[in-house]
Design brief:
The protein has 12 helices and 12 strands. It has 382 residues and is α+β, with helices and mostly antiparallel strands. The strands form 3 sheets. Strands 1, 2, 3, 4, 10, 11 and 12 form a 7-stranded antiparallel beta sheet that branches. Strands 5-7-6 form a 3-stranded antiparallel beta sheet. Strands 8-9 form a two-stranded antiparallel sheet. The longest helix has 16 residues.
Length: 382
């Protein structure tokens, strides 16, 4: 591929060049990248193929599943509740969700869940696929189970349980699902094309994902790792199942965010500044939300991880981002983050999923190019 579509501000041509190289040299199938600086877009590009079955091109309106990049959107919702005084991160979850206190969980707090320290990385109980998609049976199972380690004593990636637990906390406080809260409180004010559980009418715009051979995905070296990666009930794998309409439409606040790179970059821009008059979080809230709570060997997945409160932090986030950056990567490549020190936000989405423990060069080269351009380009703070 020698061309792409979209817009690049003067001085950001190198990002477009890196994007095109991903297709020419790294076999990219379809992707989009967006960068905001000082609350305005300086890069908004896309290219390639959205569906390899029929050659449908990736267009401005193409959307894609972002897997765990969804967690950043979920975290923003929770911190808006904190900022409004409706959620105390250190009050036990059982105060708003009494059933959650069962089996030694009476002292677990929202802070522990956001920092992946609650000891609930895997959902216990035998559930059907239909029950998982429905959500409520998973919530009930998480309330009934025992922790996998002493809550607060260590951290382990709560890959999917993160979303169901936080979503139920939000529902108990607001009376709304996290998906609807996000749509009304975050997406609508900013005009974001991003949904946690895709409405039926947008399914035709969704890129079709391609997956690598299973052997290239993170090694499943412990029983807990297997349960976390494939759970609940070993029903999930990184394969073509994620192209199924019913999964794309499911409200899983850890995993089923679907949208554009433009939406992710714009969302993060509104956490660190004003975007067309909208700001999602105050500076004080961002500082508290991005303080590192967990760093080091992870009990759930066999890598070192670094988490603040719902957000990933460097070095876990993406190679090349600034040290103050926060956001969340998604399985296979999707990434969104904000760097408050540089007033820069970045997002990348793809339908060509890859799993590289050393990092995805498609993303890191784009990030490096964005920072190099940012350093050289004239600034126009709004």
């Amino acid at each position: 591929m020698n061309s792409f579509s979209g817009d690049l501000d003067p001085g950001y041509a190198a990002v477009g060049e890196a994007f095109a190289r991903n297709f020419r040299e790294r076999g990219e199938i379809g992707a989009a990248c967006c960068v905001y600086v000082d609350g305005r877009p300086v890069v908004d590009i896309w290219g390639g193929i959205a569906d390899t079955r029929d050659g449908r091109p990736w267009t401005r309106d193409t959307i894609a599943l972002t897997f765990s990049a969804t967690k950043g959107a979920t975290a923003i919702c929770m911190h808006r509740l904190v900022e409004s005084g409706r959620l105390d991160l250190d009050t036990p979850i059982a105060a708003v969700w009494p059933e959650f206190a069962a089996n030694g969980k009476e002292r677990i707090t929202p802070r522990m869940v956001l920092s992946h320290r609650a000891g609930l990385a895997a959902i216990d109980g035998e559930l059907t696929f239909e029950e998982v998609l429905a959500g409520d049976p998973v919530v009930a199972a998480s309330a009934a189970q025992e922790p996998q380690w002493t809550p607060g004593s260590a951290h382990g990636y709560h890959m999917r349980s993160f979303g169901w637990i936080l979503g139920e906390i939000l529902r108990r406080i607001t009376g709304r699902s996290l998906s609807s809260y996000f749509a009304e409180q975050v997406a609508a004010p900013l005009g974001l094309e991003y949904w946690i559980g895709l409405p039926t009418e947008y399914l035709p715009r969704c890129a079709r994902l391609t997956f690598p051979p299973p052997a290239t995905i993170l090694p499943q070296v412990t029983p807990l790792t297997v349960r976390v990666l494939t759970g609940p009930s070993r029903l999930f794998g990184y394969n073509d199942m994620w192209n199924r309409a019913e999964l794309l439409q499911a409200q899983m606040p850890s995993s089923t965010g679907v949208g554009t790179a433009r939406a992710l970059a714009r969302m993060y821009a509104a956490t660190i500044g004003s975007v067309d008059g909208v700001r999602l979080l105050s500076g004080e809230t961002v500082r508290a939300a991005t303080t590192v709570h967990s760093r080091g060997p992870d009990l759930s997945i066999p890598i070192e991880t670094c988490f603040a409160l719902g957000f990933a932090r460097p070095p876990m986030l993406v190679a090349g981002c600034g040290p103050a950056s926060f956001g969340h990567p998604g399985a296979g490549g999707a990434t969104g983050f904000a760097d408050p020190e540089h007033a820069l936000t970045f997002a990348y989405v793809t339908n060509d999923l890859r799993f590289d423990a050393a990092g995805d060069p498609r993303v890191s080269t784009l990030v490096e190019a964005a920072y190099a351009c940012h350093a050289a380009a004239p600034r126009n703070p709004g």
